[in-house]
Amino acid sequence: MLGTAPGGSAAAGLGPFWAAFPIPPGSTISERAEVEGCPNWLVAEQGVNEPVEGIPPQLTGLQTTNRVRDLDGLESALFNLVLNTNGVFLEVYEDVVWRASVLRGTGPRAEPLSERVLGSHCEPIEGDTELCVSKNLAQWTEELHHRRTTLAQVDHELYPGLQEPFPTEVKTTFDDAGATYHFINPAHCDPARMDFSFTAHANAIVRVAVRPGG
User: Fold this and answer.
1) Who's near 92: CB < 8 A, 6+ residues apart?
2) CB 157 within 8 A of CB 51
3) 118/61 Cα distance (integer angstroms)
4) Per-residue DSSP letters for 139-190?
5) Is the pLDDT of residue 118 over 80?
6) What is the pLDDT of residues 67-82, one digit of tens each?
7) The pTM is what?
């Protein structure tokens, strides 16, 4: 099922159509997925099923086979992911992404991945023009970001382990007074900047000492 992007497709950056998301828990997995393995029905079910023995639906994604090497195959896999599963990422072989970036460009002004648009070899099925659409890499990226953000914001009960994928701040609570924790500083992740004396201005190591509250 496809819908128009919230707030207008141009504003959302998702392209002309985007998949309705998330698929409600308990939805029946299609017979095609079960019979033809397209997509893997076990993965699709894990992202949609009702909680089993206290385990909620899981964050899922798909991986293509090494036969997906052209742009039509790449876009087909992306549509398969967003239309038939609650998946939020797709793992593909690096060369097909490189080929897409070279042939179609990157960024919001890139060309669509395929030529499956009206007027080309793509013909609507029973008048459904939504099936004749293609997106560029930037639009697909935004749709997957949109899915991750949606789960993080509105489905905490169903997906308790998810968080906002692009947080503006990170908070951690420490309860064990007297303990000391060390972390890698991602802004200065360089072995040459590891200073265990903690006197350097830009250190790859962060130390947090927990002290009793007053």
Assistant:
1) 63, 64, 68, 74, 77
2) no
3) 29
4) HHHHHHHHHHHHHHHH-TTT-TT---SS-S--------TT-EEEEE-GGG--
5) no
6) 899 998 999 899 889 8
7) 0.71
